[in-house]
Amino acid sequence: MPSYIVTFKPDTPQKEKDAAKKTITDQGGKIGHEYALLGGFSFELPADAVSTLDANPHVQSVDADSEVKIQ
């Protein structure tokens, strides 16, 4: 399954983040690492199911997880 990182809008209540996690696991996905500074977490989910999370009004962005390099 592809890996993604979701970030939430500032001031998103924890219960909304927990609901998003439940949506992911209910669709067969797995929650990965929590990113406190980004206000989000990584997850694995089939690509065709990501649009459900992307449509959440509390979600700021959903991006494919990839390696980042600093030169």
How is this structure best described in words?
By secondary structure, the chain is of the alpha+beta class. A 4-stranded antiparallel sheet has the order 2-3-1-4. A hairpin with a 4-residue loop joins strand 2 (30-35) and strand 3 (40-44). It has 2 helices and 4 strands, in the order βαββαβ. The protein has a single domain (3-64), classed as Alpha-Beta Plaits. It has helices at 14-26, 50-54, and strands at residues 3-8, 30-35, 40-44, 59-64.
Helix content: 25-40%
Identify the CATH homologous superfamily.
Answer: Peptidase S8 propeptide/proteinase inhibitor I9
Query: How is the biggest beta sheet arranged?
Result: 4 strands, antiparallel
Mean pLDDT: 90
Widest sheet, order of strands? 2-3-1-4
CATH class reads: Alpha Beta
Low-confidence stretches: none
What is the end-to-end distance? 29 Å
- Give the tally of structural domains: 1
Number of separate strands = 4
What gyration radius follows from the Cα positions, in whole Å?
Answer: 12 Å
Structural class: alpha+beta
CATH architectural group: 2-Layer Sandwich
Q: What portion of the residues fall into strands of 2 or more residues? A: 25-35%
- How are helices and strands ordered from N to C? EHEEHE
CATH topology grouping: Alpha-Beta Plaits
* Spatial shape: globular
Q: How many individual helices?
A: 2
Family: Belongs to the protease inhibitor I9 family.
Protein name: Inhibitor I9 domain-containing protein
InterPro entries: PBI_I9, S8pro/Inhibitor_I9, S8pro/Inhibitor_I9_sf
